[in-house]
Amino acid sequence: MRINLDCNACCRKVRRHLINMKEVETHVIEKKERKIIVCGQFRPSDIAVKLQKKMKRRVEILEIEHLSGDHGGGEEEHYHEPPYEPQYEYPVQPDQVSTPLLC
After folding, report:
1. Is residue 45 classed exposed, middle or buried when 0-12, 13-18 and 19+ CB atoms within 10 A define those classes?
2. Inside any domain, residue 65
3. Across 73-93, average pLDDT
4. Which residue intervals make up region (Disordered) (predicted)?
5. Which of 12, 50, 80, 102 is the most exposed place for a label (fewest CB within 10 A)?
C-alpha cells in the first residue's frame, strides 16, 4: 500500500494501528518509498479503509500477492484487486412487471 508518511510520528502512528489489527500478521514500513507491506489473511480493501479512517490520509493499494497455503516454494499468483463497485438492487415497480398477454 502507499500512504504519505511525512515524519517519524506518522510512521509510529501507522505501526501502532497495524499492530492492533488482528488480521495483520507482519508488516514492513518503507518511509522513503512511502510504502507499507502487509501480510496476513484479510481483504486488502478492508485494511486500506481502516488505515484511511484512522490516519485521515489517502491509502492506495499497489499490488496484491495471493500465496497458496503450502510453503513448498509453489507458484505465486499476482493480481490487482478491481476497484470497489457497490452493487445496488432496486425493487421492481408493479407497473414494470411484464404480464403475459392472453390472445
Report:
1. middle
2. no
3. 53
4. 67-103
5. 102
